[in-house]
Design brief:
Number of helices: 5
């Protein structure tokens, strides 16, 4: 008898969600502050899709959607939030997944970006997937894991005719932008660091009207947040950490004396790596100019002894050197990703370099998952 009562109670406690009043759906969606949560919500059924906005009501860019122009420029800037996710189909017999890069701003819709060019897929691919707008993303049957987050600076425009293109064109003079400290910090303490104008480090305190250029003779190739600290690497491979309060640079590593034209910082397994890229052409030119990677050297910083170690084996990992950020992947966890390989943009296309045999080749795609694009609802 007690078992029957328990089953009756469970039935009484169960809720038929689709039977809830329609006016409750917008109220529920307003509590979803992440883009992926909202996409999952909208993918459930046509009723939920039509009753909710395509972007979260509270995003990290709300406090600073429009930024002042950097020195020697009169163009105002827009800050875009970019997130990298690992996606996996739970019904798949394989544990492998894919990566997907999503970028958005309060004023513009969510878009899927290429991790190498930082351009929307529809602009950076000769033969893009049939549906490249996130309004057609079918995320309901996928598990998503948040891997990392970055930011990028774009030209701001109110021109409606340029709406679909111009806001998504990254500044060609900008190498990278990082919001520091983390997003969990108060808005008042955050600063935006940008490598701009051939590697000069520009800093903007959120809420201020003018950028500050760090008084340092060196130009920098890359920057990264490692163990809660912001680091930069200069043209010869010396790493320094940035005191975010005083804006002073403190040397952290010995000089690498790498002869490549471009240094990239990567964190993997708790270690800092510098990838030294030998390039024909000018890598600091605008993104649509031609340049080609002809050789790659990888070095790991031994922080305990303060020395550089040449690396020939990444231990099953691969490095992805994107336009706006770098990251490492455990190759066995991703379709098409090969261990001990580096992926980057070269000669106007994605390319890979294998440390095992020092060979270049066109990479197998591990972004994004092909079956992700399935039109389910009409907007």
């Amino acid at each position: 008898m007690s078992t029957m009562n328990e089953e009756d109670n469970k039935k009484k406690e169960s809720v038929e969600w689709l039977a809830l009043p329609k006016e409750l759906w917008p109220l529920i969606s307003k509590r979803l502050t992440t883009t992926v949560d909202l996409l999952h919500f909208r993918s459930t059924c046509s009723t939920w899709h039509s009753s909710t906005p395509s972007s979260p009501t509270a995003t990290t860019t709300t406090a600073f959607p429009l930024l002042p122009p950097p020195p020697d420029s009169n163009i105002k800037l827009t800050l875009f939030e970019t997130k990298l996710y690992r996606i996996h189909h739970p019904s798949s017999s394989s544990s492998k997944g894919w990566i997907i890069l999503l970028s958005h701003n309060d004023s513009f819709p969510l878009r899927i970006f290429d991790p190498f060019t930082n351009l929307p897929l529809s602009l950076s691919h000769t033969n893009p997937p049939p549906f490249v707008s996130p309004s057609h993303l079918n995320l309901l049957n996928f598990n998503l894991l948040d891997l990392l987050q970055s930011h990028s600076l774009h030209h701001h425009t109110h021109d409606f005719q340029l709406h679909l293109l111009q806001p998504f064109m990254p500044l060609p003079e900008t190498h990278k932008a990082i919001l520091f400290p983390s997003l969990t910090s108060s808005v008042d303490s955050r600063k935006l660091f940008a490598l701009y104008n051939h590697g000069k480090l520009h800093v903007l305190k959120i809420g201020d009207h003018n950028w500050t250029i760090l008084d340092d003779p060196n130009c920098f190739d890359d920057m990264i947040v490692h163990n809660g600290q912001l680091y930069v690497v200069d043209k010869v491979g010396t790493i320094s950490w940035v005191d975010s309060e005083t804006l002073k640079l403190v040397q952290f590593s010995p000089m690498l004396c790498g002869l490549g034209k471009k240094k990239r910082l990567v964190e993997c397994g708790g270690w800092l790596y510098v990838v030294d890229m030998y390039i024909e052409g000018e890598p600091d030119s605008p993104w649509d100019m031609y340049w080609e990677v002809v050789d790659v050297k990888v070095h790991r910083l031994d922080e305990e002894w303060g020395r550089w170690l040449d690396v020939k084996d990444l231990g099953g990992y691969s490095f992805v050197l994107g336009k706006m950020f770098t990251f490492s992947l455990l190759a066995q966890d991703y379709y098409g990703c090969e261990p001990n390989s580096l992926y980057f943009f070269s000669a106007k296309r994605a390319s890979s370099f294998t440390l095992n045999d020092s060979r270049f080749k066109l990479p197998n795609r591990f972004w994004p998952c092909p079956s992700l694009f399935q039109r389910k609802f009409n907007l």
